[in-house]
């Protein structure tokens, strides 16, 4: 999807509800699969530095797609965002099928809302891997034990900041660089080294490598 202003995005696709990690904790309290807060909220939770939020990103395992759909049923409608197009994922469309058998090619994400007149609630990102292992979707060689990839506060699991920065590095937007600056002074050496190694493997010319080495 081409980069667009927040106002243009809202005009075309509608507004996002101002959800928080606590809201996510309530909604997913009875979900039997793995889930975690990702995106900017995971950065803010780690650093304590307030930042704007356009939406609420939630990570789940793609392998638990059918369980996710069962949890959403009767609560929120799911839509598939693919190349700028939104398509409803009807609850009765192969409800027990794997994600690859139902979602459009290249789609690993669901937008959710109660109905067409409501704001979007959660941007749900389908992650590879399993309950034991987090796997980077752009290079499956880059992985980490799930017990290390997540951390917990007040009953809510968050994606580790070095992993979130690895995702953010591809965009390298102003807000991504702000997140990098907020995390760097707080990141332990072994986790910074992990990020350096992962970036060096997946984007060896990335400008963040120099910034991370200068710390």
The biggest beta sheet reads: 6 strands, mixed
Main sheet: strand order? 1-2-6-5-3-4
Residue share in β-strands: 15-25%
Overall shape: it is globular
- The topology string of helices and strands comes to HHEHEHEEHEEEEHEEHHHH
Overall helicity: 25-40%
Distance separating the two termini:
34 Å
Number of helices: 10
Quaternary structure: single chain
- Gyration radius, to the nearest Å? 17 Å
Number of E-state strands: 10
Helix-and-strand structural type? alpha+beta
Uncertain runs: none
Q: Mean pLDDT score, rounded?
A: 95
Structure in words:
There is one protein chain. A hairpin with a 2-residue loop joins β3 and β4. This protein is α+β, with helices and mostly antiparallel strands. The protein is globular. A six-stranded mixed beta sheet has the order 1-2-6-5-3-4. Strands 7-8 form a two-stranded antiparallel ribbon. The chain has a two-stranded antiparallel sheet with strand order 9-10. The chain starts with 5 loop residues before the first helix and ends with a helix. Helix content is 37%, strand content 21%. It has ten helices and ten strands.
Which features characterize this protein?
215 residues; alpha+beta; six-stranded mixed sheet; two-stranded antiparallel sheet
Q: Would you kindly provide a brief summary of this structure?
A:
The protein has ten helices and ten strands.
What's the helix and strand layout?
Layout: H1 6-13, H2 21-27, E1 35-37, H3 39-47, E2 57-61, H4 65-72, E3 77-82, E4 85-89, H5 99-102, E5 109-113, E6 120-127, E7 133-135, E8 143-145, H6 146-149, E9 150-153, E10 156-159, H7 161-169, H8 174-183, H9 189-202, H10 208-213
